[in-house]
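Assemble and predict.
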Amino acid sequence: MSGAPVRRTPLPGVLEPAGRTIGAEERAAVLRVLDSAVLCSTFGGETRALEAEMESLYGRSAVACSSGTAALHLAVAAVRFEPGDEVITTPISDFGTVGPILAQNGVPVFADVDPATGNLDPAAVEAAITPRTKAIIAVHLFGAAADVVALREIADRHGLMLIEDCAQAWLGTTAEGALLGTFGDIACFSLQQYKHITTGDGGLAITADPELAARMRLFLDKGWDRAGGRVHLILGLNYRMTELTAAVARAQLTKVGAVVERRQERAAQLVEALAGSTHSLPGLPNVGLPALPGHAFWLFPLIVAGDNKRWADGMAAEGIPVSAGYLDRPLYANPVFSGPVYGTSRYPLDRDYPAGLCPNAERLIEHTLVVLPWNEGYTKTDVLDIARAIRRVHDDG
Ligand SMILES: *Cc1c(COP(=O)(O)O)cnc(C)c1O
């Protein structure tokens, strides 16, 4: 490190007001619900209104629930596969992408990823298909589109459901401008504290298929068809969103467009500052930058030559903490995939998940992926600081 750190004050983050868009609208929403005394969505209007507003935004029926993980559980349950059936997904994601597969007694099958983006490689997905495969869950990692055109085509050709995990990709699009979340049979969103918009916790699932929407609604409410007496038609849990959460979500949903736009503007500024195209400064030959079109910039990934821990140390010393690799390990290297799942049994797991299973994913996590926190609260000056820190760490390498 050369001299004083680039940055002495922390950048706006997701655990403080400066890094979130919580304001007067959210405060009024909470008070409106409290004053009504109806806090449960079965009896109030906020959750139904949120679903209608999400439907206007995405053009698909929306089902609100208690978290992104719950939304994925609704989606996986709606596939209605047999115990022991397989669902193909990515090793680089939040655990919420795979927990629901296990909860439905399915076997997660991990396909490797593109080393430039960390998103599922469609060829690896197709190679992992067996007669037991019933669904694919694609994650739009950090807000960049997975190749959903190819994945949709593969799913159709093999008769599989495609679920899009859009938890990191609010309003993201493909490079051609098609909205992410409209390719899958179901797409899932999260309102957790760290996401583009937040209610602390909360989730939404969207679908164009009324049958899938109905199954998800039953699953989130104890299998209880409220129109037909106290009768439980299927196994279901209680994943209902509360009215307090829905009211805050409605206010946050009005802001998500501006949040994504601001993140994209600042990301474009950083790419320009690093790419060396319009500046006198040269580009950084050994650093891969994200492609801008359609990227929702939940986080800002860099691909480095193989020394991501040096980058993390260097950036921390410059006052801009980043993550080396995003995860500690690929999802399949977590103890749940080698130890017991239920009681002392590994059921439904019927295979080992050895090191080396997905070499591209392992290399990203261990060596080449550096992830910068990203936020709509960043100013142009903040981005210039980030660019300066990156140049310094780069030049020290
Ligand atoms: C956050 C996240 C989830 C889980 O959402 P929660 O609301 O935290 O349960 C699932 N998948 C991805 C890709 C996520 O980023």
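Residues 67-69, 93-94, 96-97, 139, 165, 167-168, 190, 192, 201, 203 surround pyridoxal-5'-phosphate (CB under 6 Å).
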